[in-house]
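=== RUN LOG ===
request id: a7f3
mode: sequence -> structure
chains: 1
length: 500
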Amino acid sequence: MRDQGLGSWPRRRARMTPAKAALVQDGTPMSYADLDRAVTRLAHGLRARGVERGDRVAFLGLNSIEMVLTVLATARLGSVSVPVNTRLAAPELAHVLDHSGTRLLVVEDVFADALQAPQVSGLGLETVDFTRAAGVGLEHLAVDDLTEIDEPIGLDDLFMIQYTSGTSGRPKGVMLTHGNVVWNVANLLVDVDIGSQEVALVTAPLFHTAALNQVLFPTILKGGTALIEARFDAARAVDLIESQGVTLLFGVTSMYLAIAAAPRFAGADLSSLRLALSGGAPIPESLLRTWLDRGLMIIQGYGLTEASPGTTMLRADEGVRKLGSAGTACFFTDVRVVAGDRDAEDGEPGEVLVSGPHVSPGYWQDDAATASAFEDGWLHTGDLATRDDEGYLRIVDRLKDMYISGGENVYPAEVERALHEHPAVAECAVVGVPDERWGEVGRAFVVVRAGEEVDEADVLAHLEGRLARYKLPRSVVFLPELPHNASGKLLKSRLREVTP
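=== RESULT ===
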């Protein structure tokens, strides 16, 4: 094959294990042979719609076999996938589609209304909608042609643009090549014993890099079976683990918390489950011990979209001894903790720098942001960590003030930008505060303009529709002024100490 990219994986797997179930959704399996045929037909369909090598194809929808097919068919053409966060507000959605230069948008019908917003409809995009629930799928886009498509695709070719919020208040498009994802999968397989008999439960959103690159693609590479769930449901997750013999699970803190709180968790047969992966934020010790009582250590790691995402891993056998740590660097990854222009001493906070073949080449159409974050072969993550004398990292803060709510990255600058659009807001700041369910949630601090009156409900109502709901602050604190240092820099550390 000339195609060395991810779009060739269904064909490569189909010649090894054609009858094996590759994907299952709503009880309906799709074999690897059928997956390869479906990808081929859909690739011909996309080409018939004018999609060419390098064109961007966006997907807006819940987890589905259709999403997997779209991503793989796009890759087979040498085109570029743009998975869209289904929780984006209209202005955010419009920015992602416009900035990426999307050629074609594939959208699940339940999100069709989002396309009617003036910001989105004004783009004039060609769209293809589908109805998964009715079993219609993407048959109307596919073409009944099984002629082999074998584009010369190399590991350095662009595979995907994944948008992640930026400190400037605008989402940035992280470019991931085929090689970035391949090396990320290789890293994971060195650390985690994923096998051909794996039954992986995919409940985290596939528009995020973790579910896609840490669960789905490793499972396909090894010839396992991925159970695709449209949405996360804790009680259903317990049922599926028991009834389908799920062996691999991925989730963020809020998901593991919800599963542990499900009525059947304590008594359900979870003996098939041997791998539980987590990322996004550290798992609280109390929750880890709840899962340990069921015989399972949650394997935690640190990563970010720009690294495809895996960077460090706290392996299961060190989970208790190094509780709270983010682990050590993955096999094909190099990590530094830097304080100023030198490597930090053990226990000294410093910025995490990452290098490896899984690290993104930069941001789409954003030379300034790329130059700022990628320097001399190192990705400057903006995260602060300490390293102990054994090389284990502990994430202690975020230089960029980003916080993680339910596994979603939230950048205060983006929320503050929307807050400033309120006519009564003179100054504002947003910080992440601890939350038992979501890990962290936003708290807004607002200084009201002289002569104006506004309350918490009014401020929160103003943000509705401007931002995805997970980005909305859960509380508002009004202050006569915000704390600044002598040079005028806002002191967010003091805001985190304010008790509402």
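=== NOTES ===
The CA atoms of residues 200 and 226 lie 5 Å apart.
The chain has two domains: 6-384, 403-495.
=== END ===
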